[in-house]
From TrEMBL, chain A:
Record GO terms (molecular function): DNA binding; sigma factor activity
Domain RNA polymerase sigma factor 70 region 4 type residue range list: 99-151
Family membership: Belongs to the sigma-70 factor family. ECF subfamily.
Keyword Transcription regulation: yes
Pfam families recorded: Sigma70_r2, Sigma70_r4_2
One annotated GO biological process: DNA-templated transcription initiation
Domain RNA polymerase sigma-70 region stretches: 14-75
The entry's keywords: DNA-binding, Sigma factor, Transcription, Transcription regulation
Name of the molecule in the record: RNA polymerase sigma factor
Highest taxon above the source species: Bacteria
TrEMBL record, chain B:
TM region positions: 40-59
Name of protein: Uncharacterized protein
UniProt KW keywords: Membrane, Transmembrane, Transmembrane helix
Taxonomic superkingdom: Bacteria
Keyword Membrane annotated: yes
Length: 164, 354
């Protein structure tokens, strides 16, 4: 199959999942689509050289493009000073608590948010996250620990499939 | 109890109004645009070489002529365009191949209030990126892939040091080369290639009258305000409520005024057909400008965090209008010889946004 055909097939069949990842990073569907398309255009330039599954490669571009976006913007990284209160344990408060966690995720520094998205949404291991983000496994561990500490999720969140 | 995995899965469920069926066409369109740009650049270079060769071959008598060549090659300083987006490179350095640290020293002129740093790295390898760490006066500034740059204000302290002859020192250190290993199916950061060259430049703003503008094309590009606004932690008003300010078709240099109920935040998308400068004033006090330096019709995207707006550098006399007050916004154009337009989209700040 020609490279153009495999690329088209990838975009058609596989990119909807990456759009969700992009949304979890940006919290905005318009930005997510722009981020995904930008990443796909970048991936096309190296498409001929990709012999294995292209998804890890595109995901890597997506995560790094996201990181580059913040770096190039004048606002820069502005982590929140105030942290959300821990989510309550009463069932009727669960919807509010989920909103609170979602908003808190949006306030995380971007690399920390990326670590959580790659781990808990993409189900990647620490090693895979390190490869995707171009950092060491130690950095992944520390970023994940900081992210969870910021979220104060220790008691309110089920750490299903905790970071390996 | 909240399961983070479940929450992420739930929140990222694509809503039905998000259209995905056009993505392939849009991506292919972007690729085509990029290819056209490269082809155009390559074609222009080829045409330039051809002109030089033809001129040299066909008109040998001109070789000794004292007149300069007709074709103007944009000047560069150590690989950086000397003039770019209204700035002029005033200091630049590039390393010899394989050298891992670059030091650039810049003594700001007394009148300089802002500066732009440009990073550029070269290697024969394709596909990957040279990874660098950058420090300013010994303090960490940022790290990541080499390329791009940033603009900063020169604070009073730095200006005072400059007045005493103390320069600003930028240090760029290469940390490796990141690339995708297609055999292993992994992205790896490896050693720096032996041919890697690091480059860095500092540019200062140039007054409009002193800037070498390109030639005006026969046909100007149409205005296009469609641009994705990228911001987090801000809830935007519907695009149907966006406010637009357009130039007077009969006189693009005529100021335009609108009345706004001042909001927490504005995101602006601006476009202009020709070089020129827009100055924004709130109730008569100038507080921002936007400049175009070509006929490419490019966008400028700007954010006004009006809830805590702090112009860089600080503007004496400017008082931020409180949110909810009625403000007369004046847009004053200068130097334009074509149309310009501004779209303002109001937003509400979310506390603690990142």
């Amino acid at each position: 199959m020609a490279h153009a055909d495999t690329f088209a097939e990838f975009v058609t069949t596989r990119s909807s999942r990456l759009l969700r990842t992009a949304y979890l990073l940006t919290h905005d569907w318009g930005q997510a689509e722009d981020l995904l398309q930008t990443s796909l255009v970048k991936a096309w330039s190296a498409w001929r050289r990709i012999e294995a599954d292209p998804e890890p490669y595109v995901r890597r571009i997506l995560v790094n493009t996201y990181a580059t976006w913040w770096r190039r913007r004048w606002r820069g990284e502005q982590p929140a000073e105030r942290l959300p209160e821990p989510a309550g344990s009463e069932p009727h408060l669960d919807v509010d608590a989920r909103d609170e966690v979602w908003r808190a995720l949006g306030r995380l520094p971007r690399r920390q948010r990326a670590v959580l998205v790659l781990r808990y949404f993409e189900d990647l291991s620490e090693t895979q996250i390190a490869e995707a983000m171009g950092v060491s496994v130690g950095t992944v561990k520390s970023q994940a620990a900081k992210a969870l500490a910021r979220l104060r999720l220790d008691e309110s969140l089920t750490l299903e499939g905790a970071l390996r | 109890m909240i399961d983070l995995k479940d929450l992420l899965d739930d929140r990222s469920t694509t809503p039905p109004e998000v259209s995905q069926h056009l993505r392939l066409d849009q991506v292919q369109g972007r690729i085509a645009v990029r290819r056209r740009r490269r082809t155009t650049a390559a074609g222009a270079l080829a045409a330039l070489i051809a002109l030089v060769v033809v001129g040299y071959t066909v008109a040998p008598g001109l070789r000794a002529a004292p007149e300069p060549a007709v074709t103007r090659i944009p000047p560069t300083v150590k690989g950086f365009p000397k003039y770019n987006f209204g700035t002029k490179v005033v200091a630049a350095e590039r390393t010899a191949p394989g050298v891992t640290t670059l030091t650039l020293t810049w003594l700001p002129a007394p009148t300089v209030t802002t500066y732009t740093v440009i990073e550029k790295c070269w290697t024969a390898l394709n596909g990957g990126t040279i990874e660098v760490d950058i420090k300013v006066n010994g303090g960490p500034r940022l790290g990541g892939s080499c390329g791009g740059g940033w603009t900063s204000a020169l604070d009073e302290q730095a200006r005072a040091r400059a007045a005493r002859g103390e320069p600003i020192v930028f240090t760029m250190t290469a940390t490796g080369y990141g690339d995708y290993d297609s055999t292993a199916g992994e992205w790896r950061t490896g050693p720096l290639p032996a041919d890697a060259v690091l480059g860095m430049a500092v540019a200062e703003p140039v007054p409009f009258a002193d800037y070498p503008l390109p030639s005006r094309p026969e046909r100007l590009k149409p205005l296009d305000l469609r641009e994705v606004i990228v911001n987090e932690g801000i809830t935007y008003a519907p695009i149907s409520e966006a406010v637009e300010v357009h130039s007077d078709p009969a006189d693009p240099s005529r100021p335009q005024r609108i009345t706004l109920l001042w909001q927490d935040h504005y995101s602006l998308v601006m476009a202009a057909q020709t070089p020129g400068v827009l100055t924004f004033a709130a109730d008569g006090s100038d507080f921002d400008t936007a400049s175009w330096w070509s006929y490419e019709g490019g966008h400028i995207v700007r954010d006004w965090d009006t809830a805590d707006y702090q112009p860089l550098p600080p503007i004496p006399g400017f008082v931020r209008p409180p949110a909810g007050t009625v403000v007369t916004l004046t847009v004053t154009p200068q130097h334009f010889t074509g149309a310009w337009a501004v779209r303002l989209v109001a937003g509400k700040e979310t506390p603690g946004r990142s």
